[in-house]
Amino acid sequence: MSTSSDAASLVVLVRRDLEMSAGKSAAQVAHAAVGCSLKARKQATAQFDRWRSEHGRIVVLAVDDLQTLEDHREEALTHRLVHHAVADAGRTEVAPGTVTVLGIGPAPKSVLDVLVGHLEPL
User: Fold this and answer.
1) Which domains are assigned to the chain?
2) 29 by DSSP, 3-state: which?
3) 22-36: per-residue pLDDT in tens?
């Protein structure tokens, strides 16, 4: 693991209001992480390579609702960070098209801490 205190990280924000099961939440987090990884590999290659070389740190945090998730998506856009929102297919626990999670990064931990450091782990 990286000894850097500013290691590259990827955060995934999960909506609490949907009350998804642990398994559903895990699947949605995985979709967001893969989506961010694929985007970062093309759009932010150096950050992606750094993140992978530092063992791909992923942090899962909770947000209260869709509006809070959208606010964080706007912050990611403003800071030009790779991000990926997951809209569910609706085959199990939530309605089709429901935005369940938002991945942001990989990015330096210091940048992500400013944006989401106040959020609690899921």
Assistant:
1) 8-116 (3.40.1490.10)
2) helix
3) 999 999 999 999 999
